[in-house]
Amino acid sequence: MSMFNIFGVSGSAISSQSQRLNVVASNLANADAVAGPDGQSYKARHVIFQSVPMGSQGSAGVKVKDIQESDAPGRRVHAPHHPSADAEGYVTHSNVNPVEEMVNMISASRSYQNNVEVMNTAKSLLLKTLQMGQ
Known about the structure:
Blueprint: H1 5-29, E1 45-52, E2 61-69, E3 76-78, E4 90-92, H2 98-132
Antiparallel strand pairs: 1-2, 3-4
Helix pairs in contact: 1-2
């Protein structure tokens, strides 16, 4: 594996974690959303990663394979005076768990930071190698 492949691996991981952070932000923004007029509430989304093995071009890394919706039921709250209440007086909220999403956000941001550090370390090692040849 060439030293320059490190940038490809870390770059793909940074891109994937950035997409994960966007999904987490969307989930957190809709954590208190209620069901719309069609009766469907917002469903939490989760990123599925896939490793990319080293191919003929020598590239390896990670990519986002899919973004899946959670099939957990929405939270039902008894609020008969709410305009979105159903015939039984329940309002269906999204199935987003804010605590779980905050943990996902911290994990994604730490992974992002670690990959930036890997790139910075590889860059400094390459620069020191070039300085040795002068």
